[in-house]
Specification:
The protein is mainly α. The protein has eleven helices and no strands. It folds into two domains: 30 residues, no CATH class; 169 residues, no CATH class. The model has no long low-confidence stretch (mean pLDDT 82).
């Protein structure tokens, strides 16, 4: 939990800095966060390469079953969204499925949903998928301990290949990095297809 609390404190500090501090344009208007993310992925790659035997042994053991991870994540996300729609009077099952099909990819899914269904549903999609990422960042150690080492990958959805990858590695082990990246790539490709199919 120490790592999760550190992440939460950094997030809160960033929000407060954005609200109250007079930050230079290089911080607020540049692609600095993108470059930091690239640096994180670079160091993750070094970690995988440094212990390639352990990393690729997980991939070898998984073989064709590796596809079950993104399939199960998609099925679970859509099923959860469908069940949630039963308790939400203003959201139809179709709209709930569209939100669930964002799979954590908040930027792209919210744009698609806004264009096809309007700003309200697009905003709900954005917030729900951002919340999915935040929950993963904070709860990954607990998820790995309670539900197994692939649980943080499932919670992360499409973000398992980038923003949540470092916390997944820390919680599940670096040998699971390749599974996380593979799952994240497959889900990222699936998001625009799912959203379009559900709403068209």
């Amino acid at each position: 939990m120490k790592g999760s609390l550190t992440i939460l404190c950094c997030f809160i500090a960033g929000v407060l800095a954005g609200l109250f501090a007079d930050l230079p344009a290089v911080v607020t208007e540049s692609d600095l966060t993108l470059w930091v993310l690239y640096a994180l992925i670079f160091f993750v790659g070094i970690g995988i390469g440094g212990d390639a035997a352990a990393s690729f042994s997980v991939l070898k053991k998984s073989n064709i079953r590796i596809f079950l991870i993104p399939v199960a994540i998609t099925f679970g996300s859509l099923t959860g969204a469908a069940v949630a729609s039963l308790f939400l009077a203003d959201i139809s099952i179709r709209d709930a499925l569209a939100i669930g099909s964002g799979l954590g990819y908040y930027s792209l899914s919210s744009i698609y949903i806004t264009e096809m269904r309007g700003e309200v549903l697009g905003t709900i999609s954005l917030l729900s998928n951002i919340l999915r990422e935040i929950v993963t960042l904070l709860a990954a150690p607990l998820l790995a301990a309670w539900f197994g080492r692939t649980a943080p990958i499932a919670a992360a959805g499409a973000t398992a290949m980038d923003t949540t990858l470092p916390i997944i590695i820390r919680s599940s082990g670096k040998e699971f990095a390749i599974l996380a990246i593979f799952s994240g790539i497959v889900l990222t490709i699936a998001v625009p297809i799912l959203v379009t199919v559900i709403l068209s």
